[in-house]
Amino acid sequence: MTVLMYGLITGILFGFLLQKGRVIRYDKQLGALRLMDMTIVKFMLSHILVAMVGVYLLKDLGLAKLAIKSTLIGGVTIGGIIFGIGWGLLGYCPGTSVGALAEGRWDALWGILGMLLGGAIYAEVFPFMRETVLTWGDYGKITIPQLLGVNHWFIIPIFIIGGLALFRWFERKGL
Amino acid sequence: MYPMTEDKGWSPYLAGALSGLVTIFSVWISGYFLGASTTFVRVAGMIEEIVDPEKIKGMDYFIKFVPHIDWQVMLLIGIFIGSLIAATTSKTFRLKGVPDMWERRFGKSPIKRGLVAFTGGIIAMFGARLADG
Fold first, then answer.
1. Among A65, A115, A125, B86, which is most exposed with the fewest C-beta within 10 angstroms?
2. How much is the ipTM here?
3. pLDDT digits (tens, 9 = 90+) for A98-152
4. What are the tens digits of pLDDT across the range A32-50?
């Protein structure tokens, strides 16, 4: 029950910030996909840079565990391309679709229903995928620091500098 | 980097960074990382369970992702509530069935928009699950 309350509170805070950042709208999502408006990229990358530092600190202090997903080249590349096609048509992400609906953008409702059907269809074909696509290029639970054999605090500043350089470029180009 | 954009929203850098703090606190306090697409699988399974409870029992994907209300389902309900609070308190709530950018290119029909959004949703979720969220 407490866990469910934490989920709800986290969601309320996150949904509030998504709406305030104006990142859940179709025009913003398509703006990024058309390389015209990088608002959602600014939001996502800012989130990642902050969370990356905090989560690794928690890990080093023994206060949290990382939840690393397996690097599945087949699943990620093919799934990513399919997701991209669907995202371009829908114009909302799975998480932001519910936020868009709450903003009154009720076309998101069709997307939510479609995504429920998509989830059900995937559940049907999962046994096939597990035998084929998901076996292609399975590298297990790896991280970049581990792959390079260096401490993560060498990699984190590089990501931060890269992110800030990208932000600077966005602002210069007015994206 | 202005704190306010022209339509009175917050800077995406500020809102994104604050949401990063939300992730940190979530991981710290409850141990959960943010995600969304698993919820669509669980809820789809819950709907199928109502229609035919026997059907989903033997399905490996629903054994892996048991259809029930978990942390992430609550997260998505929370996102709805949080967005609703932000939209109504800032008077940016708009009932719209056709986005502006869509309308300029494809016209006013909410049915046409609905059909493409529905199809896009099916494709997007299939891809997201294949890529494991």
1. A65
2. 0.96
3. 999 999 999 999 999 999 999 999 999 999 999 999 999 999 999 999 999 999 9
4. 999 999 999 999 999 999 9
Number of domains in chain A: 2
Contact state of B96 with A25 under an 8 Å Cβ cutoff: no
A131 and A115 part of one domain: yes
A120–chain B Cβ distance below 8 A for any pair:
yes
Q: What percent of chain B has pLDDT over 70?
A: 95
- Asked, for residue A10, whether it belongs to a domain, the answer is no
Chain A nearest-CA distance from B14, in A, is 8
User: What pTM value is reported for the model?
Assistant: 0.95
C-alpha A60 chain-centroid distance: 24
What was the pLDDT predicted at B7?
A: 63
In a domain, A150, yes or no: no
Measured between CA atoms, how close is B24 to chain A, in angstroms?
6
Residue A131 within any structural domain of the chain: yes
Residues A102 and B92: their CA atoms lie apart, in Å, by 11
Dihedral angle sign, alpha carbons of residues B65, A24, A26, A45:
negative
CA distance A5 to A9: 6
Domain limits for position A130: 73-137
The Cα of A150 is separated from the nearest Cα of chain B by a number of Å equal to 23
Q: Does residue A133 share a domain with residue A79?
A: yes
Chain A's closest residue to B95, CA to CA, is A104
Which is it for the CA torsion B81, A45, A166, B124, positive or negative?
Answer: negative
